Amino acid sequence: MALRGAGEGGTAPRRPHPPEHASGVGLDSAAVRHAMVQRLAQQGLRHEAVLHALAAVERHRFVDTALVAQAYEDTALPIGWGQTISKPSVVARMLELLCEGRALPLGRVLEIGTGCGYQAALLARLCQEVYSMERLRALHERARENLRPLRIPNVHLIFGDGTAGFPAGAPYAGIIAAAGGDDIPSAWLQQLTVGARLVAPAELEPGRQHLVVVERTERGYERRVLESVWFVPLKSGTA
Ligand code: SAH
């Protein structure tokens, strides 16, 4: 696929940002990201806007310095406090499910589980506004630090338990969760606008999570259960 003009993957001038706090991905991280995106495309991920976002956002900025060399491999990585950043192919799949067949940018989107903020930075390129919730204060603060130098105006980080959604920003054109509970919380369904889509893991049978996609239509909710996945648990309360 053509990736010319994909943010820093193309020939456009680089946005100024502070010196790399993380080094070790080689001098040209855009080339490494481009290779990652090519591999994802070969695996069947085809959504142009999603692939462009993955080519543009520097994943190595969101992981610990010690893990920077692995930032563009297709692996989940620890981000501290017992949590992980999903592997790029899973992030791409979720975003593709959220966006496919829909006009972009989407309107307001709610993300449950900010983690290190990586997916929020990707969503910012696909949606008008991103509301991203995290229940662990330390990770919420970490995401804020990670995102600050990128100066992304349309990401709003919220510290709180996302199982009740975020009514203040509702209704949403999309909801995407990076943590899975027993089922899809009803608050999330209620906060979708007609025509909106939700993508989330859920443990519909004990010990097995699946990706679930729900569309809100004029007639109600249409649910699809897709492949099995493994995300961290959706927990209640804050810490
Ligand atoms: N999208 C993230 C992935 C983070 S992992 C990234 O790009 O890094 C999932 C996150 O969901 C964890 O940080 C976990 O603390 C958070 N989480 C789990 N239950 C939650 C809840 N009820 N509300 C908000 N966040 C939650």
Describe this entry's structure for a reader.
With 239 residues, the protein is an alpha/beta fold. The chain has a domain at 2-11 and 75-229: Rossmann fold, CATH 3.40.50. Helices cover 24% and strands 30% of the residues. The chain has six helices and eleven strands. The strands form three sheets. A seven-stranded mixed sheet has the order 5-4-3-6-8-9-10. A two-stranded antiparallel ribbon has the order 1-2. Helix 1 runs antiparallel to helix 2. The longest helix has 14 residues, at 29-42. Residues 1-23 have low confidence and may be disordered. S-adenosyl-L-homocysteine binds at residues 79, 83-86, 112-113, 115-116, 118-119, 133-136, 139, 161-163, 178-179, 232, 234-235.
β-sheet strand percentage: 25-35%
Please trace the helix and strand order, writing H or E for each element: HHEEHEHEHEEEHEEEE
Shape: globular
Q: Predict the CATH topology of the domain at 2-11 and 75-229.
A: Rossmann fold
Strand order of the largest sheet: 5-4-3-6-8-9-10
What is the alpha-carbon Rg in Å?
17 Å
- Helical coverage, percent range: 10-25%
Look at the helices and sheets and give the structural class.
alpha/beta
**What are the bound molecules?**
S-adenosyl-L-homocysteine
Q: If classified by CATH, what would the architecture of the domain at 2-11 and 75-229 be?
A: 3-Layer(aba) Sandwich
The CATH C-level class name of the domain at 2-11 and 75-229:
Alpha Beta
GO cellular component, one term: cytoplasm
GO molecular function: protein-L-isoaspartate (D-aspartate) O-methyltransferase activity
Protein name: Protein-L-isoaspartate O-methyltransferase
Biased composition (Gly residues): 1-10
